[in-house]
Amino acid sequence: NEASAACMSCRKDFTFFRRRHHCRGCGRLFCEKCAPRGTSGCLFAPSRRQAGTRLCYDCTTPRPGGTVRTSNSANVSFSSQNTWRGRQVSGTPQESTTLPSFGAPSKIEELKEQIDGLCQAETRRAAHRIRNEVRQIWSTTQLIFLAIGLLLSYWRVIFSAAWAALLLLLRLLPGGSWPRRNCRVFWAAAVVTVKVLSTKRRIRGLGLTGQESDAEWEAVHEVLGRFVFEQIVELRGFWIKLGQQLSVNVMLPAPYRKELSKLQDQIPPMPVKDVLSILKEEFREKADAIILDPDAPPLGTASIAQVHRATWKLKDGATRDIVVKVQHRGISSKFRQDLVAARVLASLLAWADPAGIPDLRPVIKSLREVTLNELDFRLEAVNQSRAAKAVSKSGADVLVPQVLPELVSVRAMAMDYVDGESLIKAAERLSQAERDRLVAALVDHFGVQFAVDGHFHADPHPGNLLVEKSTGRLVVLDWGMCVTLPVTHARGYAKMFFAAATSDIWSLLDALKIVGFNFKEGDVFEPLVFLQMLRFILRDSKPIDQAKGEIEDFMKGGDDLYWNGPQRYKKTPIDAFVGDFMYMGKALELLFMASSQLGARHPILQTLFRRSYMALLDDADRPVQLGSSIPRSPHALLPDLPENHLGPEANLGSLQRQLLNLLHEFYKQGQLLGAQLSVVELPRPADSRGTRPQILADCAVGVKSWLKPELVDTNTFFNIMDMSKLPLALSLLRLIDKGHLDLSAAVVKGEVVTLEHVLGHTAGMWQPLPDGISEVTQLRDFEVMLEATLKTQPAEPPGIAQRYHYASFGYLCAAACRNSGCDLQEAWQGVSQAASDMAVAHGMPPSESPELLLKLPEHLKAGTHGNSAAVQGQASSCGMEEVGQMMARLSLLMGQKEDADGDRSPLDGVAQKLWGRDHLLHSSLFAEDSSSEAWLPGLQAFGTARSMTGLLAAAVIPAAAGGLLSSNMAQDMLRSRKPSQTENESPESGIEELSAELGHVLRLEDFTNFGLGVQLVDSQSWGGRQSSAPAWGHLAQNGSMALVIPGERPLAVALLLNMTGRGDSGRQVAHSVLRALEASRV
Q1: Percent of the chain at pLDDT above 70?
Q2: Res 246: pLDDT
Q3: Which residues, at least 6 apart from 122, have a Cβ–Cβ distance to it below 8 Å?
Q4: What DSSP assignment string belongs to 463-475?
Q5: Helix ranges restricted to H, 375-409
Q6: Which of 278, 522, 566, 984 is deepest in the core (most CB within 10 A)?
Q7: Which residues pair with 474 in a beta bridge?
Q8: Cα–Cα distance, 1015 to 1029 (Å, whole number)
Q9: How many angstroms separate the first and last alpha carbons of the chain?
């Protein structure tokens, strides 16, 4: 299965929807289409392919001499036997077909000549067929008109006369009039629709499948492609621009793309005399200094204008090679007619289906403004000049021709001549590496336009792209269709690309509000789905065949969700589209299509992230010296770390230097953003009274956040996230030790759930969010969360199974304290002070003694100049695996049904209850300043690695020696509360099931065994040696940890990270640190 990631025939990547299959003949890997399962009625060789046997086409197609390829590459003759791989095939005819053998080279040459002749004849026949069928469409249309007239005359002569008068009127009207144009549009649409429907019916009636069906569709698409091209050429105007954009759409069949690609540079031009006449009208006496070759064809013809090479005579007698762009006559009125029709259509759609279709009138309004601006070449000259300045300022590796201000008017303009060739034509001779470089330069240039300059080209189809012959640079033309963003919108798009790359849902929501999106209230809008959709749009480009397969899979999943999913997916989440967002989406789509058409594999999102990141850092005004437009790792944009991150006064021991180098390496590889590490050797329990803990390592590496790339130090506050359950549990155990709480006391009066159940994770709400919590304001309100948690009914009795209660643990602890008249926050302060005192005992200066904070004060917030590190995601691109996982999760959710008998496992439907609220659990929530102000017990707290090792040391040292707990309580704390299967006759804990359902927001597989509020971790989980006693402490979702590793000299280890990766980067860092510590102890 690992032999290939793509089908060995069609080369399409294997995905969730395209499964891999082995050919039983040759053993290679194919998709379903390239290695179908055989049937008893095989068309070519019924005796060679058994029913149910999966063979590729190579293994079922005879070779010269009547042989097929088998798994051991031997030749098996069709004519000599009716066996396959030594086994008799039942039900096969005894007679065989002998294929001709090939002899002397002369006969081979004769055969080649015959084949060439047949190919030429077939080409002529196909061309003749296409011409005849296109003519047949015209003749059929005329016959239909005649039939309609005769039919009407049979009923009423007056109706027949009216029909004839209408036809005559349309015939007499000019070709550019709106009645004839609209009639042609609707007629062409009707022809295509009828042809497609009739072909579907014919193929279904004949029962054609596979290659025969594909051949029929190929023939129909060839005819319709030519027909659509001819109608677009006849209509011109807006439809040519639409055809140019469709020519790079990989979802269109190849015959359409082949025909529509002619619109990029093969549009019939207007006569040269009209060009000269327009130049004279626009430039008056200046037109005499422009010399055109009347016999030379135009350099290109587009939907609005055509371009000619010319020579401009200057006043001093010198000449200059230029290009003049001249607008087609009458094009303005045609565009305005098409835009009026589009506006009427948008109004009808908004009236007909307001729930299913968003209001497109703002889009049409923006389209009208941009298109009408495109008809004024004075505005295009301003756009092009601004783009050229932005290129020069940003260092982008593209060329924008210089406009000549003296030769600019409404319908004509001139610019410097660039000796280049079309990008598509140049790609035929360029190597793949050169094509990749051009695509990288193009995407990087659009990153500058979107996120830096706020002024972008809204029509980047291949017809507007050249390659300069002398330098190989990409040339970007036709700046008439541009969108200028407000300053706030440009920054909003930069923030949007940044959020998409780092999977930051809450920054994405802020960015969408900045650019003007309004979302509907209720359960229609689901931010996590929107984020994944956006990441799919910005996915890496791939060759066209693979790109088409991915889009087909994605659209199929979307259709399944629409038709089979919840009713809310039939509604749009958006009240109104933003016009410039539509153009940005169109530009991004054309970028992807163009790069796929060139066979390039390019990380589009990472390139846009690079420019957006620099813009958000306010460094976009200076050129980025990166050597080329090809993107490097996003982490390469972060500052380099000094060799000694602790400063010149630090005295590095061998272990600390080793650990520091390890963290440096993870930082360079992009698996770490910022980290603190503290390692303390604890005293033996026997001599804890007289021995002080010894510091083995105390270091910090990396930066505080992406947007605050300041170096972290050992005093920087990190969000310890769900690792905050450890100090919370120790606070309650200390109250129990002092007699203020009782382990057997009910958490809530009248309930059977005790405090021991809660601390041992054998009772609680193991679904991540309580019922009724759907807004972030509710999540940040302690009283609302506490009430919702207490109202939620447990799915199973207490003590049955041990599960990780992610959200309810802290609130149930708070309820236990409130029920007993204790103050949890006051108890927390006592534990925090003990941790601080123990840190001082480590030898740290009192002024730097750390604290554990429930909330982050204003002066420490990451959004200010405070010394705190924000939790942020790893910058990455979207792969089809990510999209496949999302689609698989959607399929799972749609397939979950209530049992008729009500006999369901309590684990069933957990993700279904969470769906639409899962963004409230996303790690990016904890990077918000509003979240850092909230009290979220057990979900977040703030501290340093020093404070965490101080806390662990205080928990190890008995209370009599200045620690937190008595010896008996400390021993009871480390006793596992995991119920026994035999004693309780309970099911397994269900961690695997919960991990599968909630893996897109929570990592649960590491949280399997608990004592009293502390997590028990087997050393083998990080690859360590088997130990009689487990390590204890707590882990966090992003890989942070605070553990006591047992041994002759126990170690307290605290690793704090501020980056959450899409993979296991945080866990890999933690495991590497633990393995390095274990090796040092050996």
Answers
A1: 73
A2: 65
A3: none
A4: GGEEEETTT--EE
A5: 377-394
A6: 278
A7: 398, 467
A8: 13
A9: 40
